[in-house]
Amino acid sequence: MNWPAEIFKVFKEQNITCVCHVPDAGHLQLLQMCEQDENIKVVTLTTEEEGVGLVSGAWLGGEKGALLMQSSGVGNTINALALPVTCKMPFVTVVSMRGEWGEFIPWQVPMGQGTPKVFEAMGVTNFRANNAEEVYETTDAAVKFAFNTRKPVSVLLSQRLIGAKQFEEN
Amino acid sequence: MSVLLRREVVAELVKERKPDLLVLSGLGSSTWDLAAAGDTDQNFYFIGAMGMTVPTALGLALAREENRVLVITGDGDMLMSLGILATIGTQKPSNLAIAVLDNGIYGETGGQETATSGGTNLEMVAKGAGIENASTAITKEDLANAQQEIISGTGPVFINIRVAKEDLPLIMPPIDGITVTHRFRKSLIGKP
Fold first, then answer.
1. Taking 80 as the threshold, does the pLDDT of residue B101 lie above it?
2. CATH number of the domain that residue B109 is part of
3. Interface membership of B44 toward A (CB under 8 Å)
4. Closest Cα to residue B40, out of B4, B9, B62, B70?
5. Phi, psi of B141 (to 5 degrees)
6. How confident is the model at residue B4 (pLDDT cuts 50, 70, 90)?
7. Of B15, B81, B130, B136, whose CB neighbour count within 10 A is largest?
8. What is the mean pLDDT of chain A?
9. A48 by DSSP, 3-state: which?
10. Is it the case that residue A19 has pLDDT exceeding 80?
11. Which residue of B lies nearest to A83 if distances are taken between CA atoms?
């Protein structure tokens, strides 16, 4: 199953038009689909917290956005999350997980293991997809939850889903 | 000693504002300055999330090409998110202007010196990040020129405005972020 296309499908169905990211191999295919869509703006960031501001600014302007990042970038967003949390703005981030299923680089482990706890501590509701069959319904549920209840959500794409093999190929 | 005073500068920047102008202010003194100049629905005030003012303005500018987006923030807030200048230098939104009120100190925390009191020149940082329309305002004449660029110059515009170190009364805008968000969106898109 082409799971990046399932995420892209949700973005299109939910009219997400501002996609910002710090690049990660796990988001490569999804980013390529977004870049090829003339109605989606793709903004490459220098650090992940910029994306919290960009998505919030898009919301202030009546547009929907999403931040794509790797779990290592989650720590950079912590105080920035005070913006959507305090102002009750919807916030969607899709996180490619590292430091869990079959990780071989020790440096990825601290933030990978910390990611769900950090989000939970900041008031972000975590949704997780462990396999390709779960990706569409998990992303769809998370995005609807965010925009209907105006809360921040994360979609955690398990390293089991992304696979260490893909990382080696890239 | 700088001749420019921050409250006068901010009042000047937003006087006779056009209906398309959206203003975001950074914590904390810049937000008090903008509130002192007059509260409107098309102001968005940061009182926290330091470093988020300029990234949020970029997201807004990209979403609202028909509006002019102005950031008024301090050197401390700007220094916390210097990377966003590279992102802006790449995106080049023509409707975004950034005015930094540079007093060289962290005014809310006891007046400790910022990097602009050391070796950092924010105009040069902005130019190096790809924002060609960047300048520094020191005199009232500089400010008049800067104001023209901020209101109608081709963006992204970056103006570093050197202002005096002052201890001013706190003028608080609506403190509740939900209220400010709802009224901002309602004025802009007709729904909260």
1. yes
2. 3.40.50.970
3. yes
4. B70
5. -65, -45
6. very high
7. B81
8. 95
9. helix
10. yes
11. B49
Which candidate in A19, A42, A60, A89 is best for mutational testing of the B interface (most B CBs within 10 A)? A60
Is residue A13 situated within a structural domain? yes
A 39-98 → B contacts, CB under 8 A: 41, 43-47, 49-63, 65, 79-80, 82-83, 86-89
Residue B184 has its nearest CB partner, among A44, A53, A60, at A60
- Under the banding of pLDDT at 50, 70 and 90, the label for residue A169 is low
- Print the domain residue range for B38: 6-189
What pLDDT, on a 0 to 100 scale, did the predictor assign at position B1?
A: 47
pLDDT in tens, A22-76: 999 999 999 999 999 999 999 999 999 999 999 999 999 999 999 999 999 999 9
Question: Does A12 lie at the interface with B, CB-CB under 8 angstroms?
Answer: no
Q: How many domains does chain A have?
A: 1
CATH code for the domain of A32: 3.40.50.970
Give chain B's domain count.
1
Assigned domain for A36 exists:
yes
Segment A134-158 mean pLDDT? 98
**In this complex, do A49 and B81 lie within 8 Å of one another by their Cβ atoms?**
yes
| pLDDT at A1 (0 to 100) | 79
Residue A110 lies in a domain: yes
Tallying the residues shown for chain B, one arrives at 192
Ramachandran angles phi, psi of B122, nearest 5°: -65, -35
CA of A56 vs chain B CAs: smallest distance (Å) = 6
Within 8 A of B81 by CB-CB distance, chain A residues are 49-50, 53
Is residue B1 a part of any domain in this protein?
Answer: no
pLDDT(A113) > 80:
yes
Tell whether A114 is within 8 A of chain B (Cβ).
Answer: no
Q: pLDDT tier at B16 (50, 70, 90 boundaries)?
A: confident
Q: What string of DSSP letters covers A79-144? A: GGGHHHHHHT--EEEEEE--SSTT---GGGHHHHHHHHHHHHHTTPEEEEE-SHHHHHHHHHHHHH
Window 7-26 of B, Cβ < 8 Å to A: none
Q: Across all residues in chain B, what is the average pLDDT?
A: 96
pTM exceeding the 0.95 threshold for the entire prediction: yes
Q: Do A47 and B83 touch (CB under 8 A)?
A: yes
- Within its chain, how far is the Cα of B103 from the centroid? 13
